[in-house]
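Progress narrative, Year 2. Work on ABC3 transporter permease protein domain-containing protein from Methanococcus vannielii advanced from sequence curation to structure prediction during this period.
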Amino acid sequence: MKTKDIISFAGKNITRKKTQSSLTIIGIVIGILAIVSLISLGYGVQNYIRGEITTVGADIISILPSQEFGGPVSGKNFKDKDVNAIKNVKGISNVLPGWFGGQIIEYRDQKSYANTYLITPSIYSDIFINSFGYSLDSGRWLNDNDKNSCILGYNVAKNTFNREVRVGDRVTIGDNRYKVVGILKETGNPRNDNAITLPYESSNDLFKIKDEYNIITVSVRPGEDVVKISEDIKKEIEKSRGDENFSVLTSEQLAESINSIFSVLTLFLVGVAGISLLVGAVGISNTMHMSILERRKDIGILKALGAENNTILSIFVIEAGFLGLFGGIIGTVFGILIAKAIEYFAKIAGYGLIRAWISPELIFGVLIFSFVVGILSGYFPARSGAKLNPVDTLRGE
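Result:
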């Protein structure tokens, strides 16, 4: 039997029992749908973050008081002596010590939780304008003479309260009242769009700190070797602190650290989605087993006409592969639509970093994967069918 005849025979077997085939395909559809949407969103976020960090702020070094990036801070906070040690390193343009935490913000009797960033205003504006390319939607940047003033992230001002917060309005943070002097233009990064920026000197009582920092941002002069300077900073801080429990990360390293966290999370979620695919594979295997039982006489006739075991095996294996492929095509389409819908609604909600990553590699890879899953699921039932004795099958045994 020719290859095209085998494929035609397998296709006719699927269309002959549309209801049974459709129910079998649904299991594959659900699994592939979940896998495509999760991979698309997971890699979309990673690619966006990597692109933003490495292209905007490539001359930035971030220093954190812990080696466990993304986890709880286990090291001691930085002090003024650590900041001064960093300033001794050649090739540095600016050093911005700060404190990043969370506070309740109140506006017109409404309360919300927001990221709170305490900084030195003049250094902050220089780094965030020149290195990160941020700009204001309205108002002005903080200056070193400001005391009870603040800059709000785009989402805090526009979407957090029933009424939009405008420049000149006053908000309550902790026990203090602050005048809004500026609103940051939307960046797509929730850490900035949902943040409040305050002068360190007049606001450190919010966190009961003084001359204490949990993040230091360093900008490097144009043309300098960022990696070498990060190593020099590490040596200076080791001398100042007397320990190595801190992190000095270039933009590239920071992107890698964030991506590693998202990669683990994506793999975990895809693993969970794979359970649905496993259920679909069991469904294909069961369908092929029932199909073989129902077509015992057809198998006997084919064998009586000279069909070999490999031919019988090929018919049922390809049929199972088609079931997997059809489920993969439908699941991929719906998975892409769901990922795009999540991206759309996330953007409306102010989470612009949530992107759907769709590529030919993802689509073709998933379709091949679903086809292979179908083949593997149908192989063992098909092998048992190929070994049937033609005499027994024609007798109806």
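The chain has a mean pLDDT of 82. The two ends are 26 Å apart (CA to CA).
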